[in-house]
Amino acid sequence: MNKQRIFFNQKKLKNTLSTVSVFAVVFSLFLLLVCKAFTPDHTAHIQRIESGLIPEPGIVIKGLAPQRMALSDRMGLYKIPGVSIAVIHDFKIEWAKGYGVKETGGDDPVTTETLFQAASISKPVAAFAALYFVEQGLLNIDEDVNRKLVSWEVPENEFIKEKKVTLRGIMSHSAGLTVHGFGGYAQGKELPSLLQILEGEKPANSASIRVDIKPGSKYRYSGGGYTVMQQLLIDVLGKPFPDIMRETVLDKLGMTNSTYEQPLPESLDAQAARAHRINGNMIKGRWHTYPEMAAAGLWTTPSDLCRFAIEIMLSRAGKSNKVLSQGMVKNMLTDQNENVGLGLFLWNEGEDFRFMHGGSNEGFKCTLVAYPEKGQGAAIMTNGDYGGMLNSEILRSLSEEYGWKDFRARERTVISMDPEIYDVYAGTYRLTPARKLIVSREGDRLFAEPIQVIPTAYVKCEIFPESENVFFMTQTDQKITFTKDKEGKVTGLILEQRGRRRKAKKLD
After folding, report:
1. What percent of the chain has pLDDT over 70?
2. Residue 210 gets which letter from DSSP?
3. How do residues 212-223 score in pLDDT, each as one tens digit?
4. Nearest to 424 by CA among 476, 501, 496, 485
5. Please, what's the b/e burial string for 326-356 (b: 16 or more CB within 10 A of its CB; e: otherwise)?
6. What distance lies between CA 493 and its chain's CA centroid?
7. Predicted confidence (pLDDT) at residue 34 exceeds the cutoff of 60
8. In 10 A of CB 108, how many CB atoms?
9. Whose CA is closest to 474, among 54, 97, 177, 48?
10. Which residue from 336, 414, 329, 425 is spatially nearest to 370, judged by alpha carbons?
11. What is the pTM of this model?
């Protein structure tokens, strides 16, 4: 009797477990369907951005659909093997994606966790840490940095007799300090100490960092200033700079794929993208090392940079203050000198207010932009020397998709003109002894083609009339104004680009 009861109990238990298992599977499938139903699908967003790039310099003709190109094609044109993008929407990372490979000719794909050199975007992250210690009372933002520097001091001279070098001046690039940026050190090269960099002593490959204009007199970008700040933080805290940054900012913001360690630890080698030249060849030794960590030494991902930007936006609104107070973040985003805040560049007002920073190391180009009022932004990182141009095209596509005011294509108007008039402009124009510009008519279109003793990347471009004698190019953002004599004969032209004017005489 007992054996029979045990048998039936075991059978009942098996049936019960089987029912529970089926229920668990069904419930799991139900949850997956519910999650999918309520999880936003960003596929359409991403596809439009990937296929909607308008080539540099971003000029379109009014009334005509702009030429749009695929991200993969532009990567090929610029010889950039890898790109990584992360996008912020509603104060959250909406999506992130990697493209291409870490190394030309390789098959290791770029993912959202692939490390890139942030280059000068290292600066605002370092400034964030310095401002934390200002709030802690260990530093004074308006105090002479020499009061707390121990290992080295800013050399005294006539420029700092009245006004001294301060953290505010360093972070806003108005401290009067020299050295714009740094070239880094190829693998195998001897690395200088921080003191050797400050003094410009070998094996440092940059000049000594000095004050050569009066502090506060004007804006002048200075990676050298941030190197002084790096030494200041080391002297005050008595710790290696990467440890200071990890403990103060990176860990607190969940930037788990970020480090200021230089050289990059071997354990992270496989996670890192390789740097590439404009011809697509990898830099010898994979990348350069930057002991100027505060200025250029951060290895990170677009997602981690977006986490940094999100914290700034939320802190500004008083909704998250993991590192800085709301008041300090507002100071950080206050114009100090010519659209420069404390570590960040500032643009626009009201709902279109944005902060941003770019980065350019050997073989790495990147961009971080954010709109605090909108809770939007993006980070783009590339491992090629033409990455700056590609970044601009990606930003243009992002701007259209998310409705940003900035980075849009510029619209130009073309007038109606009898093509027969083009014949009077056709000919050869001498810009310099080594450079000529050939203007030619092909049917009802007019073209300009530069000819140089040393060939360049410039090619034949169609030029479009905006008035009878003024034409523009969509490919190079150049304007050509044809000049005439009193009899109306074309005698030359003026070539304009970014405010620079060059005259050319017609030869025939």
Report:
1. 91
2. -
3. 999 999 999 999
4. 485
5. eebbebbbeebbeebbbbbbbeeeeeebbbb
6. 36
7. no
8. 14
9. 54
10. 329
11. 0.87
Residue in 377, 255, 257, 359 with CA at minimum distance from that of residue 314: 377
CB 295 within 8 A of CB 122: yes
| pLDDT 10s digits, 295-321 | 999 999 999 999 999 999 999 999 999
Percent helix, percent strand, percent coil in the chain, to nearest 5:
35, 25, 45
Taking the C-alpha atoms of residue 41 and residue 359, their distance in angstroms, rounded to an integer, is: 31
- Is 429 in contact with 506 (CB distance < 8 Å)? yes
Residues 6+ apart with CB under 8 A from 190: 203
What residue type is assigned to position 13 of the chain?
L
CB burial of 26-62 (b: ≥16 within 10 Å; e: otherwise) equals: eeeeeeeeeeeeeeeeeeebbeebbebbbbbbbbbee
Identify the residue whose tokens are 């050997």: 362
What percent of the chain clears pLDDT 90, i.e. is strictly above it?
A: 84
Are 100 and 81 in contact by the 8 Å Cβ rule? The answer is yes
* Sign of the C-alpha dihedral computed for residues 22, 25, 31 and 34 taken in this order: negative
Q: What is the pLDDT of residue 17?
A: 47
Instruction: Determine contact, residues 139/109, Cβ cutoff 8 Å.
Output: no
- Please report the pLDDT score of residue 38 as a whole number: 47
From CA 407, how far away is CA 400, in angstroms rounded?
9
In the chain, what are the domains? Answer: 78-410 (3.40.710.10), 419-506 (2.40.128.50)
Secondary structure (DSSP) of 217-253: SS----HHHHHHHHHHHHHHH-S-HHHHHIIIIITTT
Average pLDDT over residues 45-56: 94
To the nearest 10 degrees (0 to 180), the angle between helices 387-402 and 43-51 is 130
Task: Please report the DSSP string for 117-183 in residue order.
Answer: E-GGGHHHHHHHHHHHHHHTTS--TTS-GGGT--S--PPP-GGGSSS---HHHHHTT-S-B------
Partners of 428 in the beta sheet? 438
For residues 172 and 345, what is the distance between their CA atoms, to the nearest angstrom? 9
Residue with tokens 């008041």: 327
